[in-house]
Amino acid sequence: MDFAFGEEDEAFRARARSWLAGQVAGEWERRDWERALGKAGWIGLGWAEGGYGNRTASLTQQVVWAEEYARSGAPPRSGHIGEKLLAPTLLAHGGTEQKDRFLPPIALGEELWCQGYSEPGAGSDLAGIRTRAERRPDGSYRITGQKIWTSLAHEADWCFVLARTDPASRRHHGLGFLLVPMDQPGRVEVRPIRQLTGTSDFNEVFFDGAHARAEHLVGGEGAGWTVAMSLLGFERGVSTLAQQIGFAAELARVVREAVDRGAVDDPVVRDRLVRQWAELRVMRWHALRTLGGTGDAGAPSVAKLLWGGWHQRLGELAIQVRGAAAAAGPRDWTPSAPYTLDDVQRAFLFSRADTVYGGSDQVQRTIIAERVLGLPREPKGGV
Q1: 336: pLDDT confidence band, cut at 50, 70 and 90?
Q2: How far is residue 266's CA from residue 181's CA, in Å, rounded to a whole number?
Q3: Which of these is catalytic: 110, 204, 221, 235?
Q4: How do residues 271-292 score in pLDDT, each as one tens digit?
Q5: pTM, to two decimals
Q6: Rounded CA gap, 255 and 263, in Å?
Q7: Is 204 designated active site?
């Protein structure tokens, strides 16, 4: 394995840990936290091109920051979609004016983004999108359609939208990647989707003649699919290792409860706990191998298969460890607050979606089969 941390990385780790320790103790509004991160230079690590980022950081130092952030208990990020997905996409495909306009506010934590990809009839099959972007005489675009499962749309200032710019096109042809302002009353409507946990992290977004400027089309007309796929390649990089820090903390809580409740005396439970630990180590080694440059084109899909199933099984194991008590609500339950869940119940319910969102397990296996193993492509109806 050729991915290792050196002395400079550990010095960087100490600086990151020290700053986080001095900040996370207080209560933060989500936007204020993003601005604090930007002001301190922690957004845009490694954006080498054009000097748009706040701080120069190697790949290993980006991993260090992600790991320390996860360990610190810092607030959930609102700006990660702009920083981790849109920014590298603009660096790869955007024009100079687009970079100058959008990257600095992301680096400062001033503008938040959401992702307009999935639709009710085109979730896992993204090429089937129906949202239209009609070119106006002045060169701007009029966007009509619906997006779904849009994380943080209720907080976002902007949305990058995959839409069909050529009405006669089919599948992955004739698509555009547009940057759309969310503050368009009557033209952009956000409706929260209530989940099993009672929270609403996802949203439906309706575009009814929403406006997008001509200069906010990334990569040109017809290049939307290329740009969109490039963005998905950035989705599962450094953040995977940080995610595993959170997984390790969840596993540790399950182990402690198994010991406290005596469930660890059950050999089946012990076997499952050990298996979860071993699989988590495998996921880390796979992520390090990928970052070290020795992975293959299917590495992101393999990673999604690994962690989605792992996290779902952990939720099931946590319920098994707790036993019948897992079905009981809090003592202070009232009809007005029926979704008051503890960490175990919330993790179990939320993890049911882990093998669906971000590309279902079936889609990931198809990607590996076709793009890595070279197996015959799956027939597409009506193509």
Answers
A1: low
A2: 55
A3: 235
A4: 999 999 999 999 888 887 777 5
A5: 0.84
A6: 9
A7: no
